[in-house]
Amino acid sequence: MAITSVHFLIFLCITFCVFYCCPVKYRWVALLVSSIYFYVMAGAVSFLPFIVLTSGVIWICARIIGRLYEEQDEKLKGSDLGRAEKKAIKEQYKKRAKRVLMLALVCCVGILCVTKFTRYAVRYLNLIAEAANGSAPFSAEWILVPLGISYYTFSTVGYILDVYWKRYTYEPEFLRFFLYAIYFPHIVQGPISRYNLLGQELKKELRFDSRRIVFGMELMLWGFFKKLVIADRLNIFVSAVYNGEEHAGSIYLVAMLFDAFQIYTDFSGYTDIVRGASQIFGVELEQNFNHPFFAKTVPEYWRRWHMTLGGWFKDYVYYPCTISHFMKRINKRTKKTLSERGGRFVTVVIPVFVTWVLTGLWHGTGKTYLAWGIYYSTLITISVAFQPEFEKVTKFLKIRTDTFSWQLFRMLRTFCCFMGGRLLTSPGGLRRTLMVIKNILLHLQAWCLTDGTLFTYGLDWPQLVLIAGSVLLLWGVSMLQERASVRELLEEQNIVFRWAVIFAAIFSILIFGIYGLGYDAAAFIYAQY
Amino acid sequence: MQVMNKKKVLKGICFVLIFVILFFFFQKLLQAKWIASDSENSASTSAWIEYRSLEENSLDVLFLGTSHSYFGVDPMYIYDRTGITGYVFGGPGLRMDLTYMNLEDALKTQTPSIVFLDMSSIQFDFQQEEAKCHKVLDQLPMTSSKLEYAFNTESEEMKPLDVLFPFFRYHSRWSDLGKNDFKYVLNDLDDTYIRGHYITYQSKETEFHFYEDVDYVLTERNLDYIKRMKRLCDEKGIQLIFYKIPTPTWYESQSEGAKEIAEMLDVPWLELFYEVDEIGLDVKADFRDKNNHLNQRGAEKLSAYLAEYIQEHYDLEDQRPTNKKWNEDLIRYKKLVELKIPK
C-alpha cells in the first residue's frame, strides 16, 4: 500500500471513521490496529515478527534498566551511606544497566546489520569464492529486509539510550510502546521520532478538532503536489539519463539539477503527507525539513535536511563520541604533540568522520555510500576547521557579507555541494559517477540544450514548463513558510480565495500528477533505507 | 454551538458539490475524444453526439455490432430508399458485453421497432484494446452494467477506477488539449448526419469462403449478455434480429452456433454469408480490405437488401414525406458521399 495510492486514501478514511467513533480513551488502540494493518499491507506479514522482536527486546531491556534505576534510587534514598558508598552503588547499577543496554543494542542493531549488510557481504564472499573455485556458493535470497527497519530501529534505540541516560523514564505498557514503533505515518520513511515527543503525543487525549484536521489535509495536499507533480515528473528525466547509455555533459548537468529537486520534493513531499495524515488524528510528528536549499553552509544544510536523522546522529553518535574518554585522551595527546588548534582539529575530525561514515552506511551499503560519508565529513570538517582562514580571505577580497548577492552565492555554493553529494550515489556506482564527471568536463555539448535533444528524455516542453512553474511555486511557498505559517495565512483569507486555493491544489494534483496507466509512480526514494 | 455545527456541515456539503462539478467538468475536458471528420465518425465520440442529437423516439431500426456493422450498413441509404430511420451503433471488435451496454444506453432515448444484432463477435472472449473499450465506455453514463463491467474486467490495463472515471486514465492529456476538447465541454460540436456509418471507397479484392474451422466455444459471458439483450428488447416490445454481415472472416461452426442461440431464444436469424450472390456483392470491388469490411459500394448493396427485408417483414411507416430533419440531413449526406467517390 503505497502512500500515494488510492488504497492508502481509503485506508485513511476508514481509519479516520473508526478512530473518531471510538471513545477518546481507546483511540490509541484504533491507531495501533490500523498501524499493524498498514504495516502488513505496505510490507508483508513476514516483516511483522522483526518489528515485534525489536520493540519487544528494547521495551523489556528499557524496563529492566528503568527498574534498576528505581532500585538504585530506593537504596540511595533515606540511607545514611557515605559519598564513596553511594558512588559505588551508582557504579554497580550503572554497570548492570550498561550490560542490559549492550544486550539490547547488540540484538537490535545486529538484526539491522544482518538484514542490511548480508547481501553486500555475500556478494563479496561469492566474488572471492568465484576467483578461487570458479563458483559462487553463497546465497542471500533468504534475507528479508523488513519495511522501515532503519527507521524503527533508530527510533527504539534512541528510546533505550535516553532511558539509560536518564533523560526520561521507561514506558510501562508494551502496547503503547509498540504503537510508538509501528505508528503508520512514520514507519515507512520516518521521521525518526523521539519517544519523549511522539510517545507523549500518542498518550494525550486525541480529540476531534476540525481546524487541525483541515490543516492536516492541507499539508497532505502540499505533500502530494510535491511528490506527484514535481518529484515523479523529474524522475522520468533523471531515470532516463542515469539508467541509459552515455549522454552529453550538458544533459548530465540538467539531470544533476533535476535530481536534487527530485529527492527534495520526493522526501519532503512524503514527510508532508505523513505529517498531515498524523495531524488528522491529532498527533504531531516532528519536522524533517526546513527549506534546506536556503542553507548557506553545508553544516546548516544538514540541520535543515532530514532533521530527525541528523538530530539522531548528533545526539546518539556525535556527542557521545566527542565526550568519550577515548576522545578526551586523544585531545590531550594531540594538544601536547601538535598545538591547541591541532588538538581541536583532531577532536572535530574524528567524531565528524565517524558520524558521517555511519550516516552514509545508514543510507546504503557499498563503496558509493562510504564515499558519500567521506565526502560530507570532509566538507563539514573543512567548513568548521578552516573558518578563520575563510573569514580572512573574505576580508582580503573586501567582500561585503551583508549583501543579498553574497547570501545568494552562499546558498548556491551549498546547493552545488549537495548536488556533488548526489552525484556520488545517483548515477548508480562510482564508475558511472566518474563517467558523468568526465562527460561534463570533456563533452559538454551545450547545444543539446537547444537542439531538441533535451526533449528526448521523456519530458516535452509543456512538461518542462510545468516543472519550472512548480519549482517557482515551491520556492514562493518556501519563502512564505520561512516567515509565517502558510496554512494560518490561508485560514485568515476569505472563503472564496481559500477554497479557490484548495481546489486549485486538488485539481493540480489530479491533472498534473504522475500516476495511473502509463506511469509507474516512482517509489519514495527514502523508503529503501 | 449547534448553529456552528450546522454551518460546518453546510460548508462541507458545498465543498463536496463544487468538487463534484469541477471533477466532471475536467473529466469531460480531459477524456479521450475521437472527434473525427464527418465521414469517419463511426464508433467515435461523434457517433454518440449525433445519436443524442436525434429527436426522441424517432428511430425505426438500430444496428448493433462490431466494425462490420458500421462499414456494412448505411442507414441514410436505407432511409433514401424506404423512409425507414435507422442508426448504426458499432465499435471495433466490440464484445457482447459492451454491445449490451450500448443497447441499454441507446434505448433510453429511442424505442426502435427492430434491433439488428451482428453476431460477428459471438466468440470474442478477449478483452479489446483499452482505447477501443474507452471509446464506448466513456460515453456511457454510470449504470449498474458499467459498475459490473468495471469490477469484472479481465484486462490488466483496465482498472475499475479508470473505467468508472476516465479522468484518472486521461488526466495526462492536459498537454494535448485542442479546440475540440473545449467545444465538446461546451456541447458546441458540429452535428453530423451519417448515422454511425463509415463511408469509404477503398477497395481490395478478397476471397469469399469460410475460414478453416476452429473449435467453437460460446463463453458464458457472451451468452449471458446476448440473453440480456433479448430480455431488454422483449421488455420494450422491440423485435430483436440476429444477423451476420457477409464478410469472409467467419467460421462455419460459429454460424451454426449463432443459429442455435437464435433458435434457443426464438429470435430470427439472418445468415447473410450465404446470400452474397443474392445481395449482389462483388468480391473484386465491394470490400474495403482483404477478408474483412465492406466498402461504400458493398454497404449500399447490403443496405438495399436489408431495406427490402425490413419492408417485406415489418410494417414501418415511410417518413420521407414528413421528416424534415432527416430529409435535410439526407441532402447533406448525399453531397458528402459524392465527394467521397474516387474521381
Task: Describe the fold and architecture.
- The complex is a heterodimer of chains A (529) and B (343).
- With 529 residues, chain A is mainly alpha-helical.
- Helices cover 73% and strands 0% of the residues of chain A.
- Chain A contains 21 helices and no strands.
- In chain A, helix 3 runs antiparallel to helix 4 and helix 9 runs antiparallel to helix 10.
- The two termini of chain A are 17 Å apart.
- Chain B has 343 residues and is an alpha/beta fold.
- In chain B, helix 12 links the parallel strand 4 and strand 5.
- Chain B has a domain of 235 residues: SGNH hydrolase (Rossmann fold, 3-Layer(aba) Sandwich), CATH 3.40.50.1110.
- The longest helix of chain B has 29 residues.
- Chain B has a five-stranded parallel β-sheet, with helices on both faces.
- Chains A and B meet through helix 21 of A and helix 1 and helix 9 of B.
CATH superfamily of the domain at 38-125 and 194-340 in chain B: SGNH hydrolase
User: How many alpha or pi helices of chain A?
Assistant: 21
Strand order of the largest sheet of chain B: 2-1-3-4-5
The tally of strands of chain A reads: 0
User: Architecture of the domain at 38-125 and 194-340 in chain B, CATH level 2?
Assistant: 3-Layer(aba) Sandwich
> What is the overall silhouette of chain A?
globular
Secondary structure: number of strands of chain B: 5
How far is it from the N-terminal to the C-terminal residue of chain A, by CA? 17 Å
Number of helices of chain B: 15
- Main beta sheet of chain A: strand number and arrangement? none
